Amino acid sequence: MKTKFICMISLFCLISLLSSAALAQSGQLDPSFGTNGSVRTFISGGKSNNKDERAFSMVLQSDGKIVVAGRSEDDSFHYAFALARFNTDGSLDSMYDTNGTTRIYINGGSSLDDEANSVAVQSDGKIIAVGSSLNTSGNIAFALAGFNIDGNLDNTFGTGGTVRNNINTSGGIGNSDYANSVAIQSDGKIVVAGYSHNNTGDGFALARYNSNGNLDSNFGSNGTIRNNISGGDNSGDKAVCVKIQSDINSQINNLTGK
C-alpha cells in the first residue's frame, strides 16, 4: 500500500513524499506532485518575488485539497493573513478566491501586521484561520478570519469575516495576545490557544468562540481564560497546540518556563 505525505515548509512551499513497501527508498519525493514533488507559490498581493511570505499551518480538506495559511508582506512592508488552496497534484485551486490564493487584513485593513498561525476546516467546508493582529496603537490581539468554501470572507462570521479581541482586558501597549492554534468542536464552536503577554510575563491564553465568531460567554470569563502554569510573575507559559477530545474537552500542548 502506498501512502503520500504532504509536508509544509516556509515560503508557501509544499513537498510530497511517498511511503510504500514497494519502494526501494521510502520517503522519496512524489513526482506526480507539483514539479518533481515540490511547489513554491507567491501569494496574490505580494507584488513582487522578493516579498516575505511564509506558511505556518496546513490542513487537508475531506476531498484531499490542501489549505495552507501564513503571512504575506505588502509593498509597505506590512503583513496580512495569507491562504492558499492546492489540488491533490500540487496545482493551485482556481476555484479558490484569486487563482488559488487569498490575502486579507483583519478589521478591514485597520491593522498594521496580521499573521495566520493555524488553520482548520469546519464540518460545512468553511475555513477558519487564526493568528495575531497588530494595530496602529501598538496592541497585539487574537485574530480570526472565516472564509467561505470559495475563499471569500464569510460575512456571517465576526465583522465582515474577521474577529479581533484581547485576552488582557487592558489591551494597551505591552499587553499582547498571540493565537497559535485552532480546533473545531463537534458542535461547531471554535477553540483558540496561544499566550497572553503583559509587563510581568507570558500566560496561557484560551478563547472559545461560537460558530459566528462571537466569544462564547459560557467559557471562562466572557469567553477567555488566562493563567500561569509555572506560577507567579516573569513566567513564560505559551500554548502552542490545542486538540478536542471526543467529550469536547480541550487538550493543550504547551511550553512553560521561567
Residue-averaged pLDDT, rounded?
Answer: 83
Instruction: Please compute the radius of gyration using only Cα atoms.
Output: 19 Å
Helix content: under 10%
Taken as a percent bin, the fraction of beta residues is over 45%
- Structural class of the helix and strand makeup? mainly beta
Q: In oligomeric terms, what are we looking at?
A: single chain
- Number of DSSP-assigned strands: 17
Biggest sheet character = 4 strands, antiparallel
**Structural shape:** globular
Work out the helix count.
0
Structure notes:
- The chain has 258 residues and is mostly beta strands.
- It has one domain (42-255).
- The protein has no helices and 17 strands.
- The strands form five sheets. A four-stranded antiparallel beta sheet has the order 4-5-6-7, with no helix packed on it.
- The protein is globular, with a radius of gyration of 19 Å.
Note the main attributes of this structure:
4-stranded antiparallel sheet, mainly beta, 258 residues, 17 strands
Protein topology:
Layout: E1 2-9, E2 13-20, E3 38-40, E4 53-60, E5 66-73, E6 79-86, E7 101-104, E8 111-121, E9 127-135, E10 140-147, E11 162-165, E12 176-184, E13 190-198, E14 201-209, E15 224-227, E16 238-244, E17 250-255
Antiparallel strand pairs: 1-2, 2-3, 4-5, 5-6, 6-7, 8-9, 9-10, 10-11, 12-13, 13-14, 14-15, 16-17
